[in-house]
Amino acid sequence: MNKFLQRLMILIVSAGLGFWLGQHPGVSLHSDVSSERKPLYYRHPMNPAVTSPTPAKDEMGMDYVPVYTDEQTPQTQSPHGKILYYRHPMGAADTSVVPKKDEMGMDYLPVYEGDRTNAGLIQISPEKIQKLGVTTATVAKHMLIRKIRALGSIQVDERRVHAVTAKFEGWIQRLYVNATGQAIRRGQPLLEIYSPELVTAQQEYLIARQGQQSMLQGSKQAQDTTAHLAENALQRLHYWDIATAQIQRLQSLGKPLDTLPLPAPVNGVVLEKPAQEGMRFMPGELLFRIADLSHVWLLAEVFEQDIGTVRLGQTVQVDINAYPERFFGGKVSFIYPSLATETRTVKVRIELPNAEGLLKPGLFGGVTLATQEENNARLAIPDSAVIDSGTRQIVLLQLSEGRFEPRSVKLGRKVDGYYEVLEGLDDGDEVVIHANFLIDAESNLKSALDGFNNSGPDNIGGTVPEETSLSQRGGHEPC
Predict the structure, then answer these.
(1) 3-state DSSP call for residue 84?
(2) What is the domain partition of the chain in residue ranges?
(3) What is the pLDDT of residue 30?
(4) Which residues in 165-178 are b (16+ Cβ under 10 Å) and which e?
(5) Fewer CB within 10 Å: C terminus or N terminus of the chain?
């Protein structure tokens, strides 16, 4: 009876053991293959979203449950698609296959399988947008008025410079204007001249005039002859620039004048005075050089890259160092045809009124030229919206709230904090103008992770493959 019971017990144990082995085919009775599978991570027994890379206990003392590679838990599935991995919340190049926290206690962000279809886009949560201080501006047309700054000096208007000479030989009997820089008025006597030729011409005129009067009762031919002689003698005095008042005085006195004054031809100041009292002069010899300073020039040096925007008749604003509190207005009257190779500048002549006489030749000043395009309004964006590598310009285009797209653009000239947009954007587009470099960091991370995904899940925990990011494609390094 005892042997029967023993055999019955052996059969029951064998049957139970066989049934258990059938339910667990991975378990072997041989000790040499009894090694356990290595868990992937350990999850909270009551909250699968809480995990640990090592064995741990929850707050109630319960062991964390191991999760193996061949097991799929509900946390790896999401309405957004399968979770591929988790990335660092602040943009660092660090990923994890399991949920974890960074050094500041922030949860790593899941990256879903569907995100790979938007590899060119940057998505940022509204909370992060607010923290970064992201602001945008609308692409619109602006009046691009460019201001060019140039330096120059006041010069005498060459068209208002007069040389005082005599057309006959003589001597300076008396000098009335005897200093350079002296202001004079038109018609003011400059000096007294004695000339034998001038005395002879006066005598000839008086004789011809007396003969004309004596022939009033003579024949018509004689009257015409004497009138012709008197006219020729008077014309010679006019050719020698004898003033009308002096000729009238000559006619009233009826005798030659020993000396005659030489009047100033214009209002101005004396620039040169070779004349000396008592000196002899020859016909055409310079006695005075007089400049009319009621209008002056400012010769400005404009750099060659700016000369294409300067136009004749363009109004300018001039500030003179001697009068820091005042500004003077003028116009561009001439652009010189040659370029100075030493300074790479072109001279531009600006005419300035000088009724008060404040603008003295030689004074140094600056010129501000405001240039405006013919079509006036141009499509433009703030310069802070551009991420420029030197070879390529990129802006961040806002597609919707929290969704941004890097957009390559072709830019024109920069004017007063705006870039002219030639290609890449349309009127009404929204571009990021503040914190775009921080968003650029998101793009760098996303590009790196896209390349990481392309290499397969086996690389998790290894080196992230290199991938061209926004900054590397033409932007700056992330802030």
Answers:
(1) strand
(2) 2-33, 41-119, 148-156+293-373, 164-276
(3) 44
(4) bbebebebbebebe
(5) N
Q: What is the pLDDT of residues 398-451, one digit of tens each?
A: 888 778 888 888 888 777 788 888 888 888 888 888 876 666 665 665 555 555
DSSP character at residue 107: B
C-alpha to C-alpha distances, 396 to 38, 126, 378, 400, nearest whole angstrom: 46, 16, 20, 12
Q: Which residue reads 């790479």 in tokens?
A: 344
Q: Are 194 and 279 in contact (CB under 8 A)?
A: no
Type and span of the H or E element at 4: helix 2-23
User: For 116-120, 358-362, 398-402, which range has the lowest pLDDT when averaged over its residues?
Assistant: 116-120
Looking only at the bridges linking them, the beta strands covering 295-303 and 315-320 are unpaired
Instruction: For helices 196-214 and 244-253, give the axis angle rounded to 10 degrees.
Output: 60
CATH of 148-156+293-373, one of 3.40.190.10, 2.40.30.170, 3.10.280.10, 2.40.50.140: 2.40.30.170
